[in-house]
Structure formats: C-alpha cells, structure tokens
C-alpha cells in the first residue's frame, strides 16, 4: 500500500492545471483558431491579460510590500539569479544548445532565461515550506514588475547575439500598456476591492488560470497554423525536456548554495530558492506576443511551457520536504515523552 506522502507528491506532480494546459496545447494543435475566430480570440486574449494583471495588482497589499522590501540582501540575490545568472547560462550554452535544439527553440530558451520569476506559485510554495512569506510576496511581485522593462532589454541583447532583432523601446511601451497599467490600476483599487478578493481567492484562482489557458491556446493556434510542429521534431522536443531539467537543476543548486554561503537562515533560503529559480508563464505568454512574430510565438513559448511544468512538479515536492522539517522534531519529542 502506498504511503500518504507518495500519494500527496503524485497529486502535486500531476495537478489539474498541468493536465489542462497539456490539453489546451493539444486542442490548439488539432483545432487551431483561424480566420474570424482567431481575430475574436486575439481580442478576448487582450482583455484576459488585462484582467490577469489587474488581479495581480489588487492582491498585493501595501503591508506586504513594506514588510518584504526591508530585506534588500535577499531581493538582490533573487534578482541576480533571475536576471543575471539565467541569461548568462543560456547565452554561454549556445554552442551546445543551438545545434541540439535548432535556432527557433534556442531562441525560446534565451527568452525563458530572460523572464521574471513567478508570483503565485513562488508565494504558494514558500508558504507550504514555511519560508519568509512577506519577503516572497515582495520579491516575486517586484520581479514581475522589473521584468516589464528588463526582459525586453535582455531579449534584445541576447537575440542580437543570435542575429535576430526586436524594437526594444516599442516592446517596453507595448508591454507596459498591456501589463503594467492594469497592475497599477488593480493595486490602486485594492482599498475598495481588496477584502472581496481576499475572501474569494479560490474562485479568483480559477479565473487567473483560465486567462493563462486562453492566452496559451491563442498563441499556439497561431504557431500551429504557421507550421510549429513541422519545424519541431520529437527528438528536439525530448532534448528540450532534458535541457529544461538541467537549467532548473542548476538554478536550484545555485540558489541553495548561495543562500547558505551568504549566511541566510532556513526561512530566507526557502524564499530565495522558490523565487530565484522559477520563471513566469503568466508574464511570459503575453510578453511573447509583443516580442515575437505570430509564427515565432509557439517555438518561443515551448521551452517556457516545458520548464514551467517541470518547475511546478519539482518545487511542489521540495516544498513538502521543507515542510517536514517541522514534523520530525515534533515526532522526536513525542517519542522522548
């Protein structure tokens, strides 16, 4: 008979959102939106993205910002891992990754490396593992906002090294209008709607995830019509999964090692690990639609989607293992009693 711990870990590995996301990609592959349907989905997607970031802004309290912002050493380390370490690793591995993955998927890996960290899952896993939650809220939210400016700059620099180019200023302006303005509007509305949102977090989580699924379907539909699965082979897809596993392993090792070497306590280490090793699908999908042509969005997003699933699976198990550090002393004290 399987232990409850194993069953719990399996539940986290194969959660509903992971399975639904895979189903959405399959739906976009088999029944992509095209013609008038694609135009309708594009407009609905714009509204969904605005709603998504409006909700992010409304969820963030001033108290959490003030409580977390004081821990500047932790934030500096998280941002260094997110916006310096990841891009350097992706750029340095070009001689290995580009021949293995092909040019389009390698661009997707570079894009993945330039993205900010997650918000909801980083905070959720920090909470499960009993880490420094106020610092996680501040660090994850700040990473998302900083990424609005930093990510297009990094993508422009990294793609410049591959011969591609984007209009960085135009990208920043478009992304600011699509993401930053709804975020600020939501945060300014928090005094009036904050309590209602706090009471309805479970229901709003469904709206949040549905917005991401809609954006993924729209983006992949355009890429499938543009010939995504004709340019990406099964071998390249298998190699991509391995590459994402290696990237995540390097990020987890680096964040844990640096947190220990720099003298952070266990609660801060947990926050650094979960905020500094993760990449945001919620931010990455709408940004990709601004930064890349329609046919290139799918290959650009594929590494992020693979990495996103792997990071959720691995970090869910890690969060439970961190949490058990509280159970072991209690069990020892009961035995001694």
UniProtKB/TrEMBL annotation:
Report if keyword Iron is assigned. no
Keywords of the record: Membrane, Transmembrane, Transmembrane helix
Gene Ontology CC = plasma membrane
Q: Which residues cross the membrane?
A: 12-30, 36-54, 74-93, 105-125, 137-159, 171-189, 210-231, 237-256
Specify the protein name: Sodium/bile acid cotransporter 7
Native species of this protein?
A: Eoetvoesiella caeni
